[in-house]
Amino acid sequence: MRPIRFVAILLLLSVYACKKDAPSQEPISEAPVDFNALVVNEGNFQWGNASMSHINLSSGVVTGDVFSQANQRPLGDVFQSIAQVNSDLWLLVNNSQKIERIDKATFIAKSPITGLQSPRYMVQASNKVYVTDLYSNSVHVLHALTGESIAEIPFPGWSEGIVLDAQSNIWVSNVTRGKLMKIDPQTDMLVDSIVVGDAPRMLCTDDLNRIWVLCEGHLPPAETGGSLWCINPTDGSVVRAFHFSETSHPARLLHIPGQGKILFLDNGLFSVGISDTVLPATPFIAQGNRLFYGMGYNVADQTIWVSDAKDFQQSGDALVFKGSTGEFIRSFSVGIIPGSFYFY
Known about the structure:
Layout: H1 7-10, E1 36-41, E2 51-56, E3 61-63, H2 66-71, E4 79-85, E5 88-93, E6 98-103, E7 119-125, E8 128-133, E9 138-143, E10 149-154, E11 159-164, E12 170-174, E13 179-184, E14 189-195, E15 200-205, E16 211-215, E17 227-232, E18 237-243, E19 251-256, E20 261-265, E21 268-273, E22 285-286, E23 292-298, E24 303-308, E25 315-322, E26 328-336, E27 338-343
Antiparallel strand pairs: 1-2, 1-27, 2-3, 4-5, 5-6, 7-8, 8-9, 9-10, 11-12, 12-13, 13-14, 15-16, 16-17, 17-18, 19-20, 20-21, 21-22, 23-24, 24-25, 25-26
């Protein structure tokens, strides 16, 4: 698609919806259940070439575009994110204004969830799913089993990153207002907000159940640098705030469980300890002549995955590194603009 810092600009173009009904198809094969990765290949904006790659990590075999093979139709336009809901996988396809629900073993789709403007990310809380949206000025609340709409929570601006805290409260980044906002899952209402940096995007929680907020900062002409915030969700206090240079716009965010590390991308992959008081001066994994775009962590073998989007036109690579040392292990050729990973 394009570097993360240009997403907000490019997505202001018109969007379109894809077909609503998935035909009944035989599975292409039983997906291996031993050690697998799925790659979210965003595809180019308005080209309708989003795809999902499957990697059998036991054999090293890569199968491209498994959604289209299983369902005999394209996935859609800009595959934003993936998450598990009960036993299904939900695929958020933002410019096609839909969520595809697929069987985890066969990749066969149920009828998609439509009527969304630009779905971004989601979390499940009990029998409800909360979905952020770029354009709708709301957070969607859907039934986890049926996908039917339960509620629309008014949200003033672009809702993006979303996480649950230890008390199952929902926290959402407000890119437009520069705030972290809290939703009470009992009432499905906004109940609190915390001012952070400009353009907060990605969220994660750490081993101490605190919330980390990565802010991209504003782009030129009124450019401001990015920032990284650690928030105590119990009282809403700011535990720590890191500020980048005025021309630095960090992207993605990831917590490595049990190791006290937060990872982010900023022309390289950086690692900061959850107790650190200064940002690292050098990357944990150097970008070199590659273009780091997406990131993931495989708990099963403690590896860090980074995508190389190359020129945003040709197929990208999934790069695998040792989580402890950052040593390169291997790479896989995947789809166009690989943005994130799901491991199972």
